[in-house]
Amino acid sequence: xxxxxxAAVGVAAMVIGLAACGSGAEKGGGDSAAPSSLTVxxxxxxxxxxxxxxxxxDDQLAAKYPGIKINHEYYSWKDKSPKLxxxxxxxxxxxxxxxxxxxxxxxxxxxxxxxxxxxxxxNSGDWLDGLKASATYNGKTYGVPYYxxxxxxxxxxDVAADAGVADTPKTYPELTADLDxxxxxxxxxxxxxxxxxxxxxxxxxxxxDAGGAIAKQDxxxxxxxxxxxxxxxxxxxxxxxxxxxxxxxxxKDDADRYIVYGLGQSAMIYGAxxxxxxxxxxxxxxxxxxxxxxxxxxxxxxxxxxxxxSFIGGSDLAVPVxxxxxxxxxxxxxxxxxxxxxxALIKAGNxxxxxxxxxxxxxDPKVGPSAQSAENNWFVPTAPGWLQVExxxxxxxxxxxxxxxxxxVEAAVKDMDGQIDAxxxxx
Length: 427
Prior knowledge:
This protein has 427 residues and is an alpha/beta fold.
C-alpha cells in the first residue's frame, strides 16, 4: 500500500500537545508494573488478513498480565494519521500504534514516540537496513519493523513474446535490448516501459544503484549530494530510459500507475509488488482480460550490474511517549514481530522484517522477486527537514523538468541540492 508522509499541519497540531509534557515520562507518560489495559492501533490489513496472529500476541501478553484488557482499534491508512495527531495532543493515547515506515520521521523528530530498547526484540540485530533506518533517529530507536515490501518489475509475457522475447531479463543490457525490441514492434504510441517522471522513488533507485545518495550526514548536519558524479550517472541512466521507452504523459506521478498499466498501452512497470495484480483486476484491465495470465514479475536489474536498489516499504510498530504501559506495549510488539510471528506474516503474503527469514524466500516462486529486491534497499534521509523536502516536491518537480527536456541533469541536480540544503536541517 502506498503511504505518504503526514501533512505538516498534522504534525504542528501534534506538537502542541507534546510541548506540555516534556519528555513524556514526567507528565502523562510512564510505565505500570501491572497495567490493567492496553490499547493497540493497527490498520485494517491486520484485522482482515492475520487476525489469528493478533490474537496470539494478545494471549501471550495476557498470560504475563492476568486480567489485562487489550483494546484494538483498526484504521485505514488515510484515516489513521489525522486521528493519531488529534489524540497525541491529549492523554488518551494508544499504547501501540502501527506506522507506515515513511510516516515515522516527523513523529520521531518531534518527540511523539518513546525510545525503545532493541535488545528486547527478537531479530533486532538482523532487521532489514531500510526498515531499521525508518525507525531510527539520532542513533536512537523509536519503532520496531513489523513487515516489509519491495519494488519489482512486472511485464506482459504476451507483448514480449510478440516481439520475440521469451524470458524475463536478468541484466540491464538484456533489459534494454528486450525493451528495444518491444518498442520497435509496438510503435511510438506504446510505452515499452511506463515510468512516470515524477516517481522519485524509481529515479532515486538509479542514484543509489550508481553509488550516489540523496543526502549524507557530516558532522551532525545533512548535506544534499545529488551533484556527485555517482548521482549524475544514475540520473542520466534513468533519463535515457524514459526518453527511449516512456511515451505517456511526462507530468504524471505513480499514484495511478496500475490503472494506466491496465489500459494495455505499456509492456512493463516498476513499482510495488501489488501493482501488477491490481492492474489485472477486472475493474482496471481494459485489455479484455489479457493481463490476468500474462504478467510476470522479476527482479529489476540495474545499470551497475546488480539488482536495482529498491526503496523499502513496510510498517513499524511504535509506542507513543505518553503511554502509561510502555513495558507491556513493548512486550506485545515483540510477540507480534518475533520469528514465529514473521512466519505467519510471510504466509499472509508479506516479506519479513529480517534478513535471516528473508533469505529462503528468494527462491519462492510467488515472492522470490520481491524478496531478492528487498535485500538491496535504501530509505530516505532521516533528517530533521526531510518532511519539508517532500512537501515542496523538490525532487518531483526537478525530475519532471529533466524528463521534459527543460533542464539538463547537471542543471537539475544543482537546483535540487540548493533547495534541499535550504530546508533539510530545519526541524
